[in-house]
Amino acid sequence: MTPQCPEVFLRSLFDRAVEVADPMRSLADHLPARPAGRLVVVGAGKASARMAEAVEAAWGPCKGLVITRYGYGRSCRGVKIIEAAHPVPDIAGVDATRQMLHLVSNLGPDDLVLTLVSGGASALLSAPIEGVSLAEKRAVNKALLSSGAPISAMNVVRKHLSRVKGGQLSAAAFPAQVHALMISDIPGDDPACIGSGPTVGDASTPKDALAILAKWCVEVPASVTTALRKGSGVIAPDDKRLSTTTNRIYAAPAQSLAAASKLARAAGCDIRMLGDALEGEAHEVARVHAGLALEIARERKPGDAPVLLLSGGELTVTRRGDGIGGPNAEYCLALAIALNGAPGTHTIACDTDGVDGAAEVAGAIIGPQTLAKARKLNLDPAAALAANDAHSFFGAVGGQVVTGPTLTNVNDFRAVLIA
Asked: In this structure, what is the dihedral angle of CA atoms 252, 412, 96, 33, given to the nearest 10 degrees?
């Protein structure tokens, strides 16, 4: 059985991946017992307001504060929702983070801090360490995003420039009980990396952060280097102040890929799972996947089931040009160039939070006619790729996938259909 409309079929797979990660569908089953003492709900990330909404749907109005991206707020009855800038922090995020630290202080051992963490928390929890200004932290963050460094490396630097990451939120709440519920957007689902681990201790050091800046040629203000040499407040994993903290990942990329896989298998597809934790340069991964797709297409026989290549993770882009792009759109553009109109092969690549790079676009979808459409419009795909201008390219040829805020975030979703 071949899906009748590949573009609609691929979009349905992406929508299913997003649906199963919706906090309103999945969070309530993972709530801890309500405390004997006070309850404070805090959180940060692109899904955090939706997570707070799910908590209040189960428990009623709660005291607390959650920081989310502009446009991602929800209406909660008790929890205060503050919107701030992402991916480059702003003063709203700094002020909200300071409020959060004050809110969790002066609690006792019978009290509970329910912490809701999802992708995007690292930029939103943005109170810088002493000696570093917001403007300087913004400059570092922007440089990291353009460096091509993997998210795990970026988060090491972010932790050591922060007053709240790397277990420091839990330390501020001690001796209260801290129960963190997390939606993973990190390859490998390491709790210490999700939102830079505000409730998770970290064994890295300021020297490690300096080494990462050097390795990826990230230029930073002299004050940042000076502050890192003095040290930071990141909490060691065995610190007593983490002894009352429980961290739990309740939604992750693997679950969303499994749901999409089940839907595709029901449609008659032969599923090839490439992994839920892929990393690397978007255009390089695309070339590898194109080679695999072309090899599968050559080996297929009449009547064979369509093959679907599924993958997740977080690809990166090292900026070489000044265009408007993101890793998912760049993956699709590089894949289209490498496939060169191969018949029967269609692809979707989107970020499950609805934002690919700095654009309000989830990603893109391509097919055998993508390059032909570009030629009719006198567009040069290779030039667009070199300029990191994939979003502009797909805006012109009609290949953008626009969802608006999805209110969740389990990272990239990629599906290549060879039919």
From this structure: -10
For 54-107, what is each residue's pLDDT tens digit?
999 999 999 999 999 999 999 999 999 999 999 889 999 999 999 999 999 999
What are the CA-CA distances from residue 298 to residues 102, 214, 308, 342, 415 (Å)? 62, 44, 15, 11, 19
Q: SS3 of 69, please?
A: strand
Question: CATH number of the domain that 115 lies in?
Answer: 3.40.50.10180
pLDDT in tens, 131-190: 999 999 999 988 998 898 988 899 899 999 999 999 999 999 999 999 999 999 998 999
Q: CA separation (Å) from 44 to 41, 57, 173, 328, 384?
A: 11, 18, 16, 24, 34
Residues 258 and 235 in one domain: no
CB 21 within 8 A of CB 375: no
Is 124 domain-assigned? yes
Q: Identify the pLDDT of residue 4.
A: 75
Tell whether 211 and 316 lie within a shared domain. Answer: no
Containing structural domain, residue 399: 6-18+254-418
Domain count, the chain: 2
The token pair at 95 is 């002020």
The answer, yes or no, to whether the previous bond of 175 is cis (omega within 30 of 0) is: yes
**What global pTM score does this model have?**
0.90
Q: Please, which residues bridge with residue 365 across strands? A: 348
Q: Of 251, 286, 318, which closes a domain?
A: 251
CA 68 from chain centre, in angstroms, equals: 13
